[in-house]
Amino acid sequence: MKISNLMSLTRRNGLWAAALVLTSACMPAWAADEAPDAFVKRITNDTLDLIKADKSLRGGDIGKLVQLVDAKLMPHVNFRRMTSLATGPAWRKATPEQQKRLQDEFKILLVRTYSGALSQITDQVVVVKPLRAGQEDKNLVVNTEVRGKGDPIQLDYRLEKTPGEGSGWMIFDLNVLGVWLIENYRTQFTKEINAGGIDALIASLVLRNKSNAKSG
Q1: Contact of 18 with 176, CB cutoff 8 Å
Q2: Given this model, what pLDDT does residue 38 score?
Q3: pLDDT per residue over 162-184, tens digit each?
Q4: In what order do the strands lie in the sheet with 125-128?
Q5: For the chain, which residues make up each domain, given as ranges?
């Protein structure tokens, strides 16, 4: 599925749900031994309450939404891992400068994409499904379902447990309606890289971000 198709699909069926996955990370860190399903349940419910109570967020203040996602999200997401997985094998061949530019542009793309969805939240609730046994902490999936008006929305989190002091669960991928973000972007990124290398991919993201900024 192309990125454009994914965005169209999720806008019609709950793009805000993907934003909920990401902006959920704005909540304070809890104990490192918190169960992953409890972590997901807490942050999603807290985030729903936060958005419903904020008139400017519900009203679609894009500037405030972008600031919220940028300031509160990124410290709680393994964005470097997310970018490297989306880029594929070419990531290891890229220079540190190329990696930084790619990560920065990919971040802008995602922040703007999901910020615009927050104002769509109304009466939805999130149901966390039982955790599948036998999963590893470095690649663990928590399945949820968003319920409200219309059909339920499948919304899954891919998490990893960070080691050492300040350890806890980190988000590095998400699944909306059966489409994993990393897998979808990797397909598109690979085409850009095969056509012109890492620099061509960076240039493409720069142009896309400029276009998004102009269109608001």
Answers
A1: yes
A2: 87
A3: 876 556 888 899 888 788 989 99
A4: 125-128, 140-147, 153-161, 169-176, 179-180
A5: 3-215
Query: What is the tally of helices (H) and strands (E) in the chain?
Result: 9, 5
Ramachandran category for residue 68: left, alpha or beta (phi over 0 → left; psi -120 to 50 → alpha): alpha
Neighbour count for residue 84 (Cβ, 10 Å):
20
Q: Which one, of 7, 20, 14, 11, lies nearest residue 52 by Cα? A: 20
CATH code, residues 3-215: 3.10.450.710
Please state the length of the chain: 216
By the 8 A CB rule, do 199 and 98 touch?
A: yes
| pLDDT tens sequence across 64-101 | 767 766 666 666 778 899 999 999 999 999 999 999 99
